[in-house]
Amino acid sequence: MSLNYSAPTAIISTLSREQGGEKRERLARSLLEAARWPAGPQCVRCNALNMACQVRRKPGLWSCKACRSAQYTVTSGTPLHGTRVSLASWITLYLHSEVLRERWSISKVRRELGVSYVTAKNMTCRMERLKTECPVITQRLEQCIRYLSYNDLALLMLPKHVNK
Ligand SMILES: [Zn+2]
Question: Distance, CA 60 to ligand 1 centroid (Å)?
Fold first, then answer.
C-alpha cells in the first residue's frame, strides 16, 4: 500500500506534547477497539456482546454487566496485554512496519519509538505474535488505518516521516 501523504508537520507540532499524546492514545485505542470489536466491546470472559460498560475515569477499561466480575481492555487476552507501552506506540509500529511495509528492525524500533533495546525486542516479538495469533484483528486494523482521515494518520505517523 502506498500512502502518499504530504502532511504538514504543523499538525503535529501545534499540538502540545501532552494534548497530542492524549489524542494519539485515544485514536490508537479506538482503532484497536474497532479492529477487535467491530460490533462493540465483547467480554473476554463470558463473550457477552452489548453488555459492556465503561469504567468511570479509566479510559479503555470495560466491565461486563453479564458476568459482573470481568474487567478488560482491548488488549486483554492478546499479545499486546501487560506491557507499559502506550497503544499509540503499538499503532505507530504497526503502521510503519506493517501497513507501510517498512519492516522495522529491533534497532530501528528502539530509535524511532525512543524505547530501550529490551522493550524494542519485546515489542517486535509481540507484534509477530499478534499477527500469528490474532490475524483477524491485524487484518481489520490495517483496513481501519486505511480509512483514517489525513489528519488522524499524520497524528500516528512519526513526524519526520510525514513530509516524505
Ligand atoms: Zn462477561
Answer: 16
Q: What's the one-letter identity of residue 96?
A: H
Q: How far is the CA of 68 from the centre of ligand 1 (A)?
A: 6
Domain borders along the chain are: 10-37+79-162, 39-73
Distance 64 CA to ligand 1 centre (A): 5
Tell me the pTM.
0.84
CB atoms within 10 A of CB 80: 22
Q: Exposed, middle or buried, 11 (CB in 10 Å: 0-12/13-18/19+)?
A: middle
Cell of 107: 534497532
The helix or strand, by DSSP H or E, that contains position 71, with its residue range, turns out to be strand 71-72
Residue 3 pLDDT greater than 60, yes or no: no
Query: How remote is the CA of residue 130 from the centroid of ligand 1, in Å?
Result: 23
pLDDT 10s digits, 87-113 = 999 999 999 999 999 989 999 999 999
